[in-house]
Design brief:
By secondary structure, the chain is α+β, with helices and mostly antiparallel strands. It is built from 3 helices and 2 strands. It has helices spanning about 5-20, 20-45, 45-80; strands spanning about 90-105, 105-120. β1 and β2 form a beta hairpin. α2 (about 20-45) packs antiparallel against α3 (about 45-80). The longest helix has about 35 residues, at about 45-80. It is flat, with a radius of gyration of 26 Å.
Length: about 120
């Protein structure tokens, strides 16, 4: 006989599989797995923990890349299924710069700096 807790757990797993997109499932599984590995590394000392942190950083970079690909595929699917598509592009650039000259006795200092930002 199956109890209500088991039924609720099974229903939750089915709903998760049906309604959560693949890229979100991958992110959830990666986070869940990384937490387990982190706890194991903590018990082994700082060297093991640092190594685990480096490994997880690499894994998360792969996951972020996969999420971007999944996002692009989702956009492509929406475009393919649409009757009419309107694409808006937004570009903005901004920047700052400075230069300076300073003399002090026999010495001369020259400096320059700048920063820029682009939103697409």
């Amino acid at each position: 006989m199956v109890d209500s807790k088991t039924i609720a757990s099974m229903a939750g797993k089915v709903a998760f599989e049906l309604f959560v997109p693949d890229y979100m499932r991958a992110a959830y599984e990666a986070l869940s797995s990384s937490q387990d590995e982190l706890k194991q590394a903590e018990s082994k000392g700082i060297h093991s923990l640092e190594e685990e942190a480096r490994k997880q950083k690499i894994v998360m970079e792969f996951q972020a890349h996969k999420a971007r690909v999944a996002q692009e595929l989702a956009i492509a699917e929406r475009i393919a299924a649409s009757f009419e598509v309107v694409i808006e592009e937004y570009y903005e650039r901004s920047g700052k710069g400075h230069a300076g000259l300073k003399t002090e006795g026999d010495s001369i200092s020259l400096g320059a700096g700048g920063e820029g930002q682009r939103v697409t």
